[in-house]
Every structure is written in structure tokens, then in C-alpha cells.
Design a protein that fits this description.
Blueprint (H helix, E strand, L loop, with lengths): L8 H8 L24 H13 L5 E7 L4 E6 L1 H6 L2 H17 L7 E4 L4 E2 L8 H5 L10 H4 L6 E6 L2 H17 L2 E6 L15 H4 L5 H6 L19 E5 L12 H16 L4 E5 L10 H12 L13 E4 L1 H4 L5 E6 L2 E6 L18 H24 L1
Helix pairs in contact: 2-4, 7-13
Length: 381
Amino acid sequence: MKKLFFIFLAIMFSFAGCRAGDEIEEDTAEPIYTNSMEFDREAINQTFADWMVGTEYGIDEINIDESAGNIVLVISDDNYAKLEDYEIQDISVGISDILSFYGLEDSFSIKFSNGEGIEVSKNETSETDEQDEQIGDAPITEDDLAANDETLNLIFIHHSVGENWLNAGLNQMLNDSNIHVADTYYGWREMGDRTDTADWPDWFNDDVMPSVYSELGNMTGYNTIAPADGENTIIMFKSCFPNSDVGNSIEDEKKIYLSLLDYFEKHQDKMFVLITPPPMQSISHPEKTRELVNWLVSENGWRSGYEGNNLFVFDFYNVLTAKDNHHMLVDGKEAHIVESSSNTLYYDSWGDDHPSDAGSQKAAEEFVPLLLYWYQEFSEG
């Protein structure tokens, strides 16, 4: 289950003008949108096929049954029996996102070839989320949001959770702080589909990162300010929620993160911000995930021997595990607060592992003042 959301592989290739290899073509293709049953069958079939390539659910093919109004996922009885509940949920999210892109989310139901139905995923905010109180211990003030006199360029390497976070208020809050946001998503060059923890060493090297530094375009968010001249100064990167299930050992993850330090140390002109992978509702060994993120955040953990002043960690995982868990500024100082023992997702979207708008907004309100605080540390050297 390493690539859960290859859902826009073919689509984003047309958006970003990407193709296999190192060359990038100009974007000439028009996206295909429809709000009727008259849709481009070849295009949607290709998108389904590309999604299946990036998944490991044992689905053999996906058929469109217009007469019955069904998307039929052909799968053997043995492979169906092996599916976990969270994997069925991930399938629902993937197929639903494709249908939504083509304007068909209200036209089709989703079912397996054995007749079992699957709920079309809706990213809604629950009643409980709407009643959650905003953080009061470290209120965001106008001074916090206007801390930068000059525009800064930031790029965010992410997938769907990051997209939701940007569009739930993070992008605008960063713009209000004079930070222009570029981002990479599925289909960005040859690397956009790869944001698992194991993929980071393939990003942070002198072959790939120059393209990241120079990328000022946005694939998912919307900016209200223009970028500054020059490259991106702040590089944010985040793996998606499946990476929060680390199994019964975190040694492999530690080795991967430690392998990145040499690159960060050699590029002191850039500010790197790791966003810890967000939690899921069900994690096999959540205590090990908590151990890993605590190690990442602690100055006595991942960065204990690090000589630079350009590497920071935001505990997205912790913020989303409980209302009383935070990573924020308190009285002008960084505070990592774990009041609840919960180690799984609290801010779900009606059973979907993508964080709700309430969770995303809470995280944005805690993150932006921290980012400005960290940038001051970084710029002062």
C-alpha cells in the first residue's frame, strides 16, 4: 500500500505538461470537465487504469456500466477477502476523486464485481468538527500575520491532504503573511507522484532540488500575491497519511530521515520544514508512530547532531490527534503540547482519513505563527 493516491496521474500530466524522461513540454492540453453523462470514455478509462497502476489492491479492471449507473471494480474473491476496511476506504476516495474531476460524482455508484457496494467518498465537515473550539492559548494576531515586510517564496511538496490544508485556509494565511506559495502535486515532473517517506532521498539531492527551488507555479492552491524575484527560500515537505503507519519498528524511518541531514546542512541558504505525516483513524502500532514524531520534533532527537540553523519540524500528526494536542507558539516560544494520549486521527471527515476542515484550520492557525518564528531564527543565522 505504498501509492494510495495515483488518482490524477494522467490528468496532472496534461496540467503540468509532463512526460516520461527529463524533458518538459509546454501545456497545450485542455482539461476534460463534464456535468452530464456525455463524457470522454477513453479519458476516464485511462485515468482509472493509471490509478490502478499505483495501487496494490488486486483490482483487475474498472468498468463503466452506464445503464445501471455503476462503476464496477473487477476483483477476485480472494483479493476482495484480503481488503482491510481502511483499504476499501482508500479505494472509495480514489475512485470518488476521479469521478468528481469528470463531474460524475452524482452520476455513478461504486461497487465491486461481487456485488458489494462501496460508499462514494464525500469530504464533509462533521457536526462535531463544527462545534470544536478554536485554539485560545496562542491567538493569531494581526501582528503575527504581518511579520514579513518583504515577500518570501515558499514551495510545498505534498499530495491530497496538503491540498485540503492549503484550501482550508493555509494558503491565504501564508499570503496574508507575505509568503507566496508554490507547490508540487501528482504529475509534477517525474517526482510529483512520490512523497512517501522512502522517497525523500530521491528528492533531496542536487539533481532534483534545483527544479524545486525554481518552481514558482501552484498546482492546487490559489495565491493573492505575486512571487518575489528569485527562487523559493522555504521548502516544506510532507508524506501522506498512510506513512503514519510505521509498523512495529521505526528504525527504517530513522535511517531515511538521518540520511537527509547531509543535504540540508550543505544548503544553508534554504529553510527546510518537515511536516510530519498526518494520522489515520486506524494505525497498527500508533505508539511507534508517536515515538517517531516525538523523535523528529525533539532537538535531542533527529536534529541532535545537526550543525545548521535551517531545519524545522511541524508536528502535523500531533495537532490532528486530539483537540488538546498542539504545536504552536505560547508566549512567544515554541510549545509542543501532548495533553491527550490519543495517537490516531481525531479530525476525520465523516470516516475519511483526510483531515476535516476543522482539523486543517486548527493546524494552519498553529503552523503559520510558528513558521514566521522559525523564519526569524533562520534569517538571523
